[in-house]
Design goal:
By secondary structure, this protein is an all-alpha fold. The chain has a domain at 1-116. The protein has 14 helices and no strands. α7 runs parallel beside α9. The longest helix is centred in the C-terminal third of the chain and has 34 residues, at 327-360.
Length: 364
């Protein structure tokens, strides 16, 4: 068997969803919300549960499906098990080993894609996977998540950027823009590297790369054209363009020092990136990626805009509260952030069920 059947992929996705639930509730625990004891115990692992455990599972599963090799599914499996290890209170070394295994397999899968097709976007995707691995090594070496966070954020940013760069092949993008994109990726990587030894200067450079990437995507991404379309195409474009605005804000805040440990605006900068940018991408791509992974149709419905609106509105409240130093507002916005994610999942499930009922009734 060269590939894993769609039905057998669902448990891997389920492991990732457990990490998402635990990561979200652990984040609420950090903001003094009353959550189950297991979430309180995992509060210190919020970042690890959200990025390598949840996103590592989802992105690793997507990459494994893309190359169609059974061994590649070790990446999402190990990432999901790493999240379960953190939730269960297992030794941290066990979770670190699983995260490193997941990242190494993911990098191997990305290099396999690169061997099949050497192009700028496949190089960027491989670099993103390498960032995940480097972040895991930084976590292992330092014993804390702070050194890993820039690398893990770079993993998410470069993975998304590489996928968007792939689509620009269908646009008349000038060579100068392509060279600029490569330069931006180099700045982000250099910033992540310098953040280990010289935190402030490295994080400042990293933030500058984020801001430049946002400007590049807003100018050259195909989403600008697709926003004038209708239906699912327009919805995806709106998700992407709104996410790029949050990416720009994260970069701007980072240039003001907000990404530095202990900065009072750090929560605003990190979540503008991780929630506003990354989850806007998730909301937009889920109707395409999930059917490809699980072979389950997600019919588009205008109701998809509702969780997107709730996410952006609540994030604006959270960030506004954080920037103003109003903890109560920040805390309230975070709670609605969590609700927006649950609302999106419920909307997707309702779309799947509704689509099956329509198909069962013989509708065309």
């Amino acid at each position: 068997m060269r590939d894993l059947p769609p039905a057998a992929r669902l448990p891997l996705l389920f492991f990732g969803m457990i990490s998402l639930l635990a990561g979200v509730t652990a984040g609420l625990a950090r903001l003094a919300w009353e959550v189950p004891p297991v979430a309180v115990a995992a509060a210190g692992w919020h970042g690890a549960l959200m990025i390598p455990a949840f996103f590592g599972t989802v992105i690793g599963l997507e990459r494994a499906v893309a190359i169609g090799r059974l061994w590649a599914y070790a990446a999402p499996a190990a990432a999901g098990l790493g999240g379960l290890a953190l939730i269960a209170g297992a030794p941290v070394a066990a979770a670190q080993a699983l995260v490193l295994l997941a990242a190494a397999v993911m990098l191997a899968a990305s290099l396999q894609v690169l061997r099949r097709l050497t192009a700028p976007f496949t190089i960027v995707l491989a670099l993103g996977a390498a960032c995940w691995l480097i972040g895991g090594l930084a976590w292992l070496a330092s014993g804390g998540l702070m050194a890993a966070v820039p690398w893990w954020l770079a993993f998410l940013v470069l993975t998304i950027a590489g996928e968007r760069l792939e689509l620009t092949r269908f646009l008349p993008t000038p060579p100068l823009a392509q060279n600029l994109f490569i330069a931006i990726v180099a700045v982000i990587l250099l910033g992540a590297a310098l953040s280990i030894g010289q935190a402030d200067s490295g994080l400042w450079l990293f933030a500058g790369g984020l801001l430049a990437l946002a400007a590049w995507l807003l100018r050259y991404d195909i989403a600008r054209r697709n926003a004038r379309q209708t239906g699912l195409t327009r919805y995806i474009a709106v998700c992407l363009l709104s996410g790029y605005v949050w990416l720009a804000l994260a970069g701007a805040l980072g240039l003001a020092g907000a990404l530095s440990p202990g900065n009072p605006w750090r929560d605003a900068a990190v979540h503008a990136l991780a929630l506003g940018f990354v989850f806007a991408m998730v909301f937009g791509h889920a109707p395409i990626i999930f059917p490809a992974v699980a072979r389950v149709k997600i019919p588009y419905h205008p109701a998809f805009y509702l969780p997107l609106l709730v996410l952006h509105a609540s994030l604006a409240v959270r960030i506004g509260g954080g920037l103003a130093g109003d903890f109560a507002v920040q805390r309230g916005g975070a709670a609605v952030n969590a609700f927006a994610l649950l609302l999106f999942i419920a909307t997707v499930l309702a779309s799947v069920v509704g689509g099956r009922r329509t198909a069962g009734n013989g509708a065309p």
